[in-house]
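May I ask for a sample protein chain and its fold as tokens?
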Amino acid sequence: MRILDSNKKNFYTELNKIINRRKTINKSTLKSVEKIINNVRKNKDKALVYYEKKFNSNSKITPNKKEISKAIRLLDPKIKRAIDETHKRVRDWHLKQKPKDIYYKDKLNNKFYYKNKSIESVCCYVPSNLPSSLIMCATPAIIAGVKRIVLCTPSLNGKLNGGVYYAAKKLGIKEYYSLGGASAVMALAMGTKKVRSVNKIVGPGSKWVALSKKLVFLEGLCGIDANYGPSEILCIGDSSTSHESVASSMIAQSEHDPDSMAILLSKNKKLITKTKSSIIKQLKDLPRRKIAGKSLKKNGLLIYVSKEKNIIDITNHIGPEHIEASTKDYKKYLNSRIFAGSICIGPYSSMALSDYGPQNHNLSTHGSSKFSSGLGVKDFITQTSYNELSKIGVAKLGKNAYLMSNFEKLVGHSRSIKKRMERK
């Protein structure tokens, strides 16, 4: 882990090196993803099976019902109850997000409508061990009214995850594919004989999954949610903050992926020193210590700041996925102009706990929280505007539009407007 001092002249240069390194698309990774996508485009199901055998020790595109039933049956009843409770909390929260249609009539009797319509089909891409991610992806889609919801989740060493399939059953999902990676994304985007295409793919994944989603979107094959890459957290602490809690939060996000990022910002140098020591201590018996250790070594930062304003400025410069603010005066961040996908405030709020609801944990990464939001009901809805103009409305509004279109050298527009104005 690196310790940076925000007072140093080269601070932003050093910070940007780390941030931009994560954002830069590795040429080798891009080449690999493009090769996989083009192979699936050409060879379809044959290519899918090839990559499944190679990466996931799996030879089936669709798992059979017996395998699914067995995986669910072997699941610990306590985990089933935990999934049930998580689903209920997530559902209750997302029900509050459902948008309303808009209707407006002006004094000229022109009528304007804004209609919300659910998209037809969605694939929830879920890492092999994360039933919580399926709940987070599918629940808002169900509330939005999506008729066809598909689960795509890779098997792990050829085995199904009972938790993921129990959650799928709970959610009423009946179409699933045992696929993973860039090949799965391409198959779902374009469709094959054994895989039906969808209108949109949502859900978290590795850098290969994130990149493949971007590429199929750029081709216009299907929609995607947002820039969901490896996880990120930025912790803000002071003298009242527990260094052990901060260390545990940084490790929690780092264990997701070697490309995850964990940062601490503080005006308290003792907290920085103690947090670093605590991270080293807590990593020792962590089952995923190799992943977390690699992530922290490469993308872990402990940043000393001397002024409160610097904390806001640096945080917004980074635009992290998650923020934990456990300072004494943490409530000030509730109304501040600070940007992140999700912000935990107070000493008892843990980002790891928030991953299990009720709010969505599919959040923007790589600085995109500065201009985008986490997954919600809105992401499964298209909003269409309708306008129904009256005769007097066209006569009145048409004059202004006619002048504007001529000014913009759009003669075809002005002629079309005039035709309506002249209609008896």
Observations:
- Residues 66 and 72 are 10 Å apart (CA to CA).
- The mean pLDDT is 94.
